[in-house]
Give the backbone structure.
Amino acid sequence: MGIRKIIEDAAREEDRTAPLERAIFAMVANRCPAPRSKLGCYERWLEDIYFPEGKTMNLYHLYRAMDFLEDHKKEIEEALYRRLADLLNMDVDLVSYDTTSVHFETNDEDEELRRRGYSKNGRSDAPQIVVGMAVTRDGYPVKSWVFPGNTTDVTTIEQIKTDLRGRRLNRCIFVADAGMVSEANPAMLRRDGMWVIHSNDDSLSPEDLALAYKQLIRVEEAWRTMKSTIKIRPVFHRNTDRIRSHVFLCVLSLLLERVAEHECGDTWPCLREELRSIKIGQLLAPHGTVYQTSPGSLHARNLLKTLKIDPLPSVLAVE
């Protein structure tokens, strides 16, 4: 999807020499098959996989890459959005937005992000952040936001509108349930079982808006994936910028999974299990080491073909 070039171009403008893009790739890729903390990614996962570029990295490179990613999030998101809109022919006529809360396993709050507030996962006892995400009709994430944990949903709407207008989307439909609307105006709703939709496009029919509400399931599916498969929590960071960067890494992982699911017509957990049949063997000899591949199952090889990924050579390297 060209993410490598987008990040390398941004790094080149700053005359960076550290392997920032490869470090970002490692952290994003890690969350798809075996999510770990950044320390766990460096000390364990990079030792278990065949990734020669990882041998030149240290833990400091991962943290520097996270700082770089946060500094350049906006331009990376914009460039990626433009590329994907052409590559995937994304349907951006309808964009759904919702938030979730992500709690921390600590009692300590801070002045910027980690605050106590209304928890959507029943952990009002712990500090949290509020994460917002906009996804297309097909479930592709196009933008994400991180707010302090005491932020109410309704107060995020204006910022979201402004940001998405910058994407030149045809329509941006924001969906709010009765609780969100009554929070903004308690006198507005007093009936159970009702839902209210707020849109910036008054040309849309009630039918279009009802469809938009039902499309919110795409965001809910994204949250389930972020929390179960990608494991956005627990968050092992205290620094504000790195908390934001951690969320963006998870969103990029979600994007990779969604593209694979749409191209292959299957869920990522099923694809992941099939692709695990592709192995790398390390053969030790008196005068060197050979890294040899086993091609995996026929289904796994067909998945690579569907994803336009070249099959691995039988011998990857000889040292």
Summary: Residues 240-264 form the longest helix (25 residues). The chain has three domains: 1-87+241-266, 90-235, 277-318.
